[in-house]
Design goal:
The protein has 484 residues and is mostly helical. 64% of the residues lie in helices and 1% in strands.
């Protein structure tokens, strides 16, 4: 373990993160909300801490190993989330307690979208902007952004990129140089954000709301500048339609966007097995939801049932977490079905949460293969995705991920129930945070303000597990990681 190299990178990244507290200062001055002092204090403290961490080891130029990359990623997300909580604790409002401020900060950076704040419509504009910006930075992964910048400072980034993006990704390197890969992803991410903001603005949002909601839409975060979330714009159906389109795009593997743009062709989408599965799952669930909403007369007409049903399915299925109505009160099995869809989540290489569609697809194919083997025990049956056989090592890794996910989910569920939460609230809270979804059921359908501080710390841990896809965080807790 190269502690000096890790310390140097952590200091640099923390100094870079401090800069993100300056745009809210400009927003505060523009709207004259008087909140700029809180952000300036947070900027100074974050920058100063980063400088103190970096100075003693500034001359260390050793290359990172993969093990060091895991340490940097986990440490940085923990430190970044901690310092990101400062503006929520400083100032007259919302003046959150430490657990609440940490919860809000980690929820933003991990793009979970769960909130402990009520009365969003009356909060300072600069603080509302800051919440949205946190999600936008966390969406693609601030480590990937650092990969594009750190080489300029004499630090190789491949180890950080591999640690930040675990799992069966089909296009680990889209361009020959990892720096160019990170830049390509961010150009696509930025382009989608700008397009989404312009579309929202043209559809009737104010410029402030359009920018804020484009941040959380493309990041698949779910934070809103209004208590009613997207329900605030319920009389403007075009806004919901735009949100559906961009949530679908953000939940798609960004490698596909890159390849499609480079070839100027939609063929990469048509030929990608994960993308086809992604659309099939969402279309099937949307069809069931709309039909049942119409049959139960939950909405006055079929058009309203279709719009709200499709919106909510895409929002929860991609783990965005926007709401236009109280889906937790929808009839019968619908709320639970939607929550289950969030376990699948978006595609690998997207900003979505959940276990990822590619893992679900491989689990399904593996289960099918085992059934066939009962009839033909000696048959050699490869698992293929997109016509290509998958290595058995990948299948084993997916099963390992699934088993670990279920085990940790069960443990966190029991811990939450020990804090006094009922079964529905505890189950949905763990699901909503581990899947980086946001809204749950029961007591956490609207916000998480009423749960205990202990439960909030547990859910912060769950958010980190989900954001880092479990193994990146858990590997630090294994004895093998610390052996030379």
């Amino acid at each position: 373990m190269q502690l000096a190299a890790i310390q140097r990178i952590l200091g640099l990244l923390l100094m870079l993160f401090s800069i993100t507290m300056l745009p809210p200062v400009l927003v505060s001055l523009f709207y004259s909300d008087g909140f700029y002092i809180s952000f300036l204090f947070g900027f100074a403290l974050t920058l100063g801490t980063g400088l103190l961490i970096w100075l003693p080891v500034r001359n260390n130029r050793r290359d990172l190993r993969l093990r060091d990359g895991f340490m940097v990623v986990v440490m940085f997300w923990v430190v970044l989330g901690s310092f990101g909580s400062l503006p929520f604790m400083i100032g007259a409002e919302p003046n959150l307690s430490l657990p609440d401020a940490m919860f809000e900060s980690f929820s933003g950076l991990t793009t979970t979208g769960a909130t402990v704040i009520t009365g969003l419509d009356t909060l300072p504009k600069s603080l509302l902007y800051y919440r949205q910006q946190l999600q936008w930075l966390g969406g693609m992964g601030i480590i990937v952004l650092a990969v594009a910048i750190l080489p300029m400072l004499g630090i190789g980034g491949m180890q950080l990129y591999r640690a930040e993006t675990p799992g069966p990704m089909k296009e680990n390197k889209l361009t020959p140089r990892i720096t160019e890969t990170a830049k390509a992803l961010w150009y696509i991410y930025l382009g989608l954000t700008v397009a989404c903001a312009l579309a929202y603005w043209a559809a009737g949002m104010t410029p402030f709301d359009a920018i804020g909601h484009s941040f959380s839409t493309v990041a698949i975060g779910g934070f809103s500048t209004h208590d009613a979330s997207m329900g605030y714009f319920i009389d403007q159906p075009l806004i919901e339609m735009i949100a559906i389109v961009f949530m679908l795009l953000a939940g798609t593997n960004f490698a596909l966007h890159f390849i499609a743009l480079r070839r100027l062709s939609a063929a990469p989408y048509r030929h990608d097995a994960e993308f086809r599965t992604y659309l099939t799952i969402l279309a099937t669930v949307a069809g069931i939801t709309v039909l049942y909403l119409h049959m139960t007369a939950t909405f006055s007409d079929l058009g309203s049932a279709a719009l709200h049903g499709v919106f909510q399915v895409v929002s929860i299925g991609t783990t965005t977490g926007f709401t236009t109505s109280d889906y937790a009160s929808w009839p019968s099995f619908l709320p639970v079905m939607l929550l289950f869809v969030s376990f699948i989540g978006g595609c690998a290489g997207s900003t979505g949460g959940g276990m990822k569609v590619i893992r679900f697809l491989l689990l399904f194919k593996q289960g099918t293969r085992e059934i066939v083997r009962l009839v033909h025990p000696n048959a050699v049956i490869p698992i293929k995705v997109g016509g290509k056989p998958m290595p058995e090592r990948v299948i084993e890794a997916v099963w390992g991920f699934f088993a670990t996910y279920v085990a940790i989910f069960a443990i966190l569920l029991l811990v939450l129930m020990m804090t006094g939460l009922d079964q529905i609230t505890a189950f949905s809270a763990v699901a909503a945070t581990m899947n980086n979804l946001g809204p749950g059921l029961g007591e956490v359908a609207l916000n998480y303000a009423s749960i205990s501080d202990v439960a909030k710390w547990v859910l912060i841990f769950a958010m980190l597990l989900g954001r880092l896809e479990i193994f990146t965080l858990l590997v630090l807790l294994t004895p093998a990681f610390w052996r030379n």
